[in-house]
């Protein structure tokens, strides 16, 4: 037999790669945003780091300086602007199916709705919770026990802390308590973005997903509608700090988000120009891979559309006028306003959006 001699293969011409700018990335659930598995960040914290977190949390409660309001009160004795003391007042604790599909999944998000807030948004969609002191008072340990119940009884995909900016010390203590008692699901910090850098430093290592809502951009707008002139400046620094901690939003193969940053923006009637600026900020100063939910469900609520009251001269009595408060936002947003913000986001280079599915199945 003739000995075998390998034939030389003809070399194929090299594949010409298109410039990166011409690539069309249409799938957010793909490397490098796909995780084989995930372990919550708090599970990797050492006992020494946990003890230091606890010590700092107690110190902040004695001199409340975490929130940008910096009231400086001893919350074991009195309250600041949020009207909440050393315990957390919780309105609702339950599996929730009103969040982004990648957050709620099939079993729901283990949502904890905290009463009160450090903002006073005139249009607040949850004003019955955030503007009123209703609910049960829970110590950090009791709150942590509820996290465990949500995990064991509700089989939730995560613990979702909603409007927690004013109870960060209690939240930190609750996560550490739950960690020691078997908590194993990711923690979501669902915030208005009116957070201080000191607050986020305390949460570093405890939170897996940051879910801020960047509302408005101009100081005049935030002073009038949110009662916080420094809101936008604070939100910019907070969101950049969140990105530095957890990076871009990542998923396991089941389509459930496990770690990273997800930014919401509620499109406001007549304020789409500020939404455009926010989209450019996210693309240029946070990440072009930032996962964004451009929300269109604004509706007049809270103080919007309520009759104005006017005092009669020389009398303490009030009369109700035909005028309404915040008349400029006393309407729903238009499709054109929503499209304007979306187009600005795409033009800025953002591409990972929370869009409804193009099929009749479940959106993951």
Description:
[4Fe-4S] cluster binds at residues 117, 121, 124. This is Radical SAM core domain-containing protein. One of its GO terms (molecular function) is iron-sulfur cluster binding. Its cofactor is [4Fe-4S] cluster. It holds the Pfam family Radical_SAM. The chain is an alpha/beta fold. It has a single domain (33-298, 333-353), classed as TIM Barrel, CATH 3.20.20.70. 30% of the residues lie in helices and 17% in strands. The chain is built from ten helices and twelve strands. It has helices at residues 47-62, 101-104, 127-130, 140-153, 168-180, 197-203, 219-225, 231-246, 272-286, 335-348; strands spanning 88-96, 109-114, 136-138, 159-162, 187-191, 209-212, 250-251, 257-266, 291-295, 307-311, 318-324, 352-353. The strands form two sheets. Strands 1, 2, 3, 4, 5, 6, 7, 8, 9 and 12 form a ten-stranded mixed β-sheet that branches. Strands 10-11 form a two-stranded antiparallel ribbon. Strand 5, helix 6 (197-203) and strand 6 form a beta-alpha-beta unit. Helix 4 packs across helix 5 and helix 9 runs parallel beside helix 10. The protein starts with 46 loop residues before the first helix and ends in an 11-residue tail after the last strand.
């Amino acid at each position: 037999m003739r000995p075998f001699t390998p034939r030389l293969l003809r070399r194929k011409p090299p594949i010409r790669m298109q410039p990166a700018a011409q690539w069309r990335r249409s799938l957010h659930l793909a490397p490098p945003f796909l995780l084989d598995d995930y372990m919550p960040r708090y599970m990797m914290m050492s006992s020494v780091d946990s003890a230091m977190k606890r010590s700092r949390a107690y110190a902040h409660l004695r001199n409340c300086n975490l929130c940008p309001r910096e009231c400086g009160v001893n919350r074991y004795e009195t309250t600041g602007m949020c009207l909440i003391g050393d315990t957390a007042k919780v309105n609702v604790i339950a599996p929730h199916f009103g969040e982004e599909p990648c957050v709620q999944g099939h079993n729901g998000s283990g949502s904890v709705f905290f009463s009160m807030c450090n903002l006073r948004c005139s249009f607040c969609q949850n004003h019955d919770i955030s503007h009123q002191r209703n609910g049960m008072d829970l110590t950090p340990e009791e709150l942590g026990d509820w996290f465990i119940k949500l995990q064991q009884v509700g089989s939730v995909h995560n613990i979702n802390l909603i409007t927690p900016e004013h109870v960060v010390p209690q939240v930190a203590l609750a996560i550490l308590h739950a960690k020691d008692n078997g908590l194993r699901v990711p923690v979501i910090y669902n915030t208005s973005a009116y957070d201080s850098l000191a607050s986020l430093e305390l949460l570093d290592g405890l939170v897996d997903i940051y879910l801020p809502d960047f509302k408005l951009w101009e100081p005049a707008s935030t002073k009038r509608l949110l009662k916080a002139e420094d809101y936008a400046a604070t939100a910019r620094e907070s969101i950049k700090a969140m990105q530095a901690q957890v990076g871009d939003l990542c998923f396991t193969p089941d389509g459930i988000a496990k770690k990273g940053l997800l930014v919401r923006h509620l499109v406001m009637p007549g304020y789409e120009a500020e939404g455009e600026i926010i989209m450019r900020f996210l693309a240029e100063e946070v990440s072009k891979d930032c996962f964004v939910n451009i929300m269109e469900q604004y509706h007049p609520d809270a103080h919007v559309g309520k009759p104005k009251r006017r005092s009669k001269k020389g009398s303490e009595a009030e009369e109700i006028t035909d005028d309404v408060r915040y008349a400029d936002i006393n309407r729903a947003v238009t499709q054109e306003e929503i499209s304007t913000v979306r187009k600005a986001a795409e033009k800025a280079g953002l591409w990972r959006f929370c869009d409804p599915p193009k099929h009749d199945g479940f959106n993951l």
